[in-house]
């Protein structure tokens, strides 16, 4: 993929959550283009649709309307099997609430996406350990998520999202649970991934964190209100 190609091309995306007859609109026509190799920060008030947008871009949730191409894939037309394969091959996601598997230790949580992608176990293990080392949590490799602090879990979640060096990294408040020193460390890791060519969309409430991105978008009430166009 050339650097001018779009990794994300979303037009008029809509999405509502339903509870019986009640609809809760979360995305009300999102237009978003992200080029290969960009590092974009997404800001906006609580409830504005940031996490929903990341889920839709990751192929974890389907939009109700609009057009969406991610890494050249037309997500709305794909079935669940194709979407699972797309996620495994193209996307890494750091969930706002981590979504680690509680019955597996930290090391195995991190290794899992690599194993599912067919990486030999020895290689997956070495890569996972190196990432835990970089994130200063190698000594916690044998602990399960319920035995870890919030900030430690967050770092395990980041290692898991990075292990396959995904073309598109989606990170939802990836520094929300750690202290400033660890946050800087995480941002350095993301910058290094970006320097290797990985495209990043990072959600944050912290302007200092958003300052690490090359472009900042603002979501309000399910719509992007500023900076939607890709830079020239
Ligand atoms: N599973 C759900 N069922 C019903 N409504 C939902 C569900 N998930 C999210 N919503 C609603 O959709 C809207 C957008 O939620 P979303 O989680 O995307 O916001 P957010 O911008 O990530 O907020 P925060 O900064 O608090 O994480 C909110 O009004 C929320 O109440
Ligand atoms: Mg959220």
What does this entry look like structurally?
By secondary structure, the chain is of the alpha/beta class. It has a domain at 6-100 and 164-226: P-loop containing nucleotide triphosphate hydrolases (Rossmann fold, 3-Layer(aba) Sandwich). It is 33% helix and 28% strand. It contains seven helices and ten strands. The chain has helices at residues 50-57, 80-90, 106-116, 121-134, 150-162, 180-195, 207-210, and strands spanning 6-19, 22-35, 39-43, 65-70, 73-74, 91-94, 168-172, 199-203, 215-220, 223-226. The strands form two sheets. A six-stranded mixed β-sheet has the order 6-7-8-3-9-10, sandwiched between helices. It has a four-stranded antiparallel β-sheet with strand order 2-1-4-5, covered by helices on one side. Residues 228-232 have low confidence and may be disordered. It binds adenosine-5'-triphosphate and magnesium ion (MG).
Q: Distance between the terminal alpha carbons, to the nearest Å? A: 18 Å
Which cofactors or ions or other ligands sit in this model? adenosine-5'-triphosphate, magnesium ion
Tell me, briefly, the overall form.
globular
Uncertain residue segments: 228-232
Rg? 17 Å
Counted by DSSP, the helix tally is 7
Tell me the CATH topology of the domain at 6-100 and 164-226: Rossmann fold
Give the SSE order as H and E letters. Answer: EEEHEEHEHHHEHEHEE
- Assembly state: single chain
Q: Specify the biggest β-sheet.
A: 6 strands, mixed
Average pLDDT, rounded to a whole number, is 94
- Arrangement of strands in the largest sheet: 6-7-8-3-9-10
State the fourth-level CATH superfamily of the domain at 6-100 and 164-226.
Answer: P-loop containing nucleotide triphosphate hydrolases
Number-wise, the strands total 10
Q: In what range is the share of β-strand residues?
A: 25-35%
Share in helix: 25-40%
The CATH architecture assignment of the domain at 6-100 and 164-226 turns out to be 3-Layer(aba) Sandwich
Structural class: alpha/beta
Query: Briefly, what CATH class of the domain at 6-100 and 164-226?
Result: Alpha Beta
